[in-house]
Design brief:
The chain has 352 residues and is α/β, with parallel strands linked by helices. It contains 11 helices and 11 strands. Helix 4 links the parallel strand 1 and strand 2. The longest helix has 21 residues.
Length: 352
């Protein structure tokens, strides 16, 4: 017997999986008490109204229908302003400490593709120092945070004895079985195609940009720190490079399967990374489960919440996380603070 698609699937064919039931009526009432949506007479419910209602519904679901095991976060625009760092004064920090104290594991899954711990410490020092100095976290709870960089390419775990409070985890210890099949030759071939596409975009649109090539990524950055590449040019570059890579066979592995990649607009630059945030979140799910034994099942999607700001489908790197986790779409670090307060309230209510 064939599965009959839902009415929602028929109306919105690209709709993703829902890992929980969403209590939309309760979420609307919750947001209505904050935003007075139903009190408006001339302004209909906006995109932001709907986005925040869905966020609240998802938070209610992961706290009432099950137990939240893992919360993953994007970096720029989610934890701190674009290009900035997580400073000690950030109101996000005590809320993250509270999450860890409630035995929720935390993964920071960022597009920033640094290969050394000091670069991540520079961006996250406020949080890492607070964890090291906390008087409410147990030694085990301090270990319940990891940094996944370059979308899904560099894993660092918390280590109090390190000068940067982080230690790199050897790739062979965390690569999933499927990720291990991506050969270096296939990765290089894909990045070569992407680099050529970037060079064409620079020439075609006369972009004030230069190529930056890394071992697991390639992109363009402004050739002058004082000159920003126009947003429209960044978006066009994302879509052009993405399409060229999709049509290319340059990045196939030995099974003739295309190596996964993510092309995205970083606000001031455009990059192509190997893998995407669905792989990064999946690694976090498996990593924390593995601490309970080599054969432990990964943390499930309905037990995972990913928080990010880029969920529009075109070149938005948080979008892919929808396939492996429940998600919350925020628009600023201030909204992340509100979201974490909501989450803490729902978790406390469940415990009581």
């Amino acid at each position: 017997m064939h599965n009959i698609p839902s009415k929602l699937k028929l109306l919105v064919p690209p709709i993703g999986n829902f890992f929980t039931r969403l209590p939309l009526e309760a979420a609307f009432k919750f947001q209505d008490r904050k935003r007075y949506i139903s009190s408006r007479r001339f302004v209909s419910p906006s995109f932001n109204d709907v986005r925040l209602i869905l966020n609240s519904a998802q938070l209610m679901a992961v706290t009432t229908q099950g137990t939240l095991q893992l919360a993953t976060f994007d970096g720029d625009v989610t934890l701190y302003d674009d290009g900035q760092s997580l400073e000690p004064s950030s109101p996000i920090i005590p809320r993250m400490i509270d999450l860890l104290a409630k035995n929720v594991k935390v993964g920071i899954v960022t597009a920033a593709g640094y290969t050394t711990a000091d670069r991540y410490y520079a961006r996250l020092h406020g949080l890492l120092d607070a964890i090291a100095e906390s008087t409410i976290l147990t030694p085990q709870q301090r270990q319940n945070i990891v940094i996944m960089g370059g979308e899904a390419n560099y894993l660092f775990e918390f280590r109090p004895s390190s000068p940067d409070l982080l230690a790199p985890v050897p790739q062979k210890q965390w690569l999933t079985a499927e990720m291990a099949t991506w050969s270096d030759a296939s990765i290089t071939a894909l990045l070569d195609v992407a680099e050529a596409a970037f060079r064409d975009c620079i020439k075609t649109m006369n972009l004030p940009a230069t190529i930056m090539r890394k071992d697991r990524a390639v992109g363009i950055i402004s050739s002058d720190p004082n000159v920003r590449i126009p947003r429209e040019s960044l978006e066009e570059t994302v879509l052009v490079v993405q399409k060229i890579l999709e049509l290319s066979v340059g990045g196939t592995d030995r099974h003739n399967k295309v190596v996964p990649f993510c092309a995205f607009n970083g606000g001031r630059d455009v990059f192509v990374d190997i893998g995407d945030k669905s792989w990064g979140v999946s690694v976090c799910q498996a990593w924390f489960a593995g601490k309970h034994g080599a054969n432990a099942a990964p943390i499930r999607p309905e037990e995972t919440l990913h928080v990010g700001d880029q969920f529009l489908s075109a070149g938005s790197n948080d979008f892919k996380a929808r396939s492996v986790a429940t998600t919350a779409w925020i628009a600023s670090p201030a909204e992340t603070v509100d979201l974490l307060d909501e989450l803490a309230g729902f978790m406390t209510k469940k415990l009581s």
